[in-house]
Description:
Elements: H1 7-19, H2 27-48, E1 59-68, H3 80-86, E2 90-96, E3 101-107, E4 115-118, E5 127-130, H4 131-148, E6 152-158, E7 162-169, H5 174-183, H6 193-200, E8 209-214, H7 220-232, E9 236-243, H8 245-249, E10 256-260, E11 263-270, H9 272-296, E12 300-305, H10 310-321
Helix pairs in contact: 2-4, 2-5, 2-10, 4-5, 6-7, 7-9
Amino acid sequence: MQISGSKKSSSEANVKLANSGSDLLSPQDRARVASLQLFARSVVDGITVGRHQSPHKGFSAEFKEHRPYVLGDEIRSIDWKLYGKTDRLFIRQYEEETNLRCTILVDQSKSMAYGGGLKDGGLKDSIKLSKHEYAIRMAAAIAYFLISQQDAVGLGLIDTELRSYIPPRGRPNHLQVLMQTLAKSQCEGETSLGSVIQQAAPRLRGRGVLVLISDCFDDLPTLIKALSFFRLANNEVILFQVFDRDELEFPFRKRTEFRNLEATDQRKMIDPAALRKAYLEKVSAFRKTLADGCSKNRIDLVPCVTDMPHSEVLASYLASRGGLR
Length: 325
């Protein structure tokens, strides 16, 4: 993928975006939106450094027809060879491609709230991200990336239902709407990803790319079936599965109270050492089931851990498949 437009024009657009709709947000929300946008831009700049810009972004090179030149048309579009033959000015028209349409679904169920705080015994310069914080930053980076390419991006926040759905659009000021929605996203509700995605399918119609960012702590057969529906409709489906490092390594040693984040009345004091082996086996089986289901249905599965830089995850994935087109 390539970024269209210069850094100067992007900066000017960002200033305009940052000011639009500011009266609808609290100072804290505005600060969070600005932080998200700045973060997303830094990720994209890091991924695209050294890449060449495309002067024909969003259009195919397949010739369609001529039409007469009218005042205001770009001179470079004139077919000078035809002018030499006919002594009349004509414009070469090309078949316009439908820009990529991407809908990003972000899991905001309570299990995504795990993590956050300070690393390494509380060093102030070492902040951990919760899975949800990681997910909204990833969504912001993807949205920034695609809208910079003049592609259309939509957004949906999901837990037990589809919330704050925003249809895909590609206008620069649409980015601010997405950033505002992401910035205000809060973890709430239980997880019903598969059933919600199935119910929301009519609203997500149209060929394009569906991106789901989630820990996938749900009934996997239902989730995979829901995502496979979009693949059968010739959509690309990309699943960014987000883990906290604790969930993969279970580093607990002392007796610890664990609670179900999606059912706060469920708490249990356990000896981690006695359960570690069984827990890791369960996690391994869970990940294998999801990976096998994604592979069978040609769904791209991108594992993420909250201590992995977003730019590295995105750059590695994009390099592996050569972009999103």
